[in-house]
Write a structure and sequence with these properties.
It is built from 6 helices and 9 strands, in the order αββααβαβββαβββα. Helix content is 30%, strand content 28%.
Length: 194
Amino acid sequence: MKEEEALKILEDTGAYQRGHFKLSSGLHSDVYVQCAQLLMHPALAGQICRQVADLWRDEKPEMVVGPAIGGILVAYEVGRALNVPTIFAERQEGVMTLRRGFEPHVTKGLRVLVTEDVLTTGGSAQEVVELLQGLGADVIGAASIIDRTHGNTLKLTVPHRSLITLEAGTYQPDACPLCQKGLPINKPGSRPGI
């Protein structure tokens, strides 16, 4: 599948949106990708996530881990495509943790792929990377459906690959041209207080 075909699927499902948005990272943008709109269609989500899995198949991951909440379904579908166990990390008192009996499954040297729906700064994915490395896992990289970093420095300390590289304006709030134009802002992210 070509990047254009994948982006068309995102547009057709309503996952790709244009406007003025405050992202979960706190940055502002003229584009928002709500992957939940894609993920509500299992066949299309499976098709997209198989392509994400194929980007990493040769690295032979032994487990896939996604940060809650956006990375859970992506991790599951990527894990299914790779036929490896899949778990998720979630915040507990603001810190990424493994709960629900997952931690004993992360063993020393285990080859783990971290997955996300969208990479903007890589902050949540990096928190998961550090959590897993602290447990002795060999984190081989981070995968996502969308890379919207514009080549900016990510917080990630592991290699990353994405199915789609999205060209979208991303701005610090005090330098946002959309705010300067007085356009109303939409806050669709999943983090409260952002």
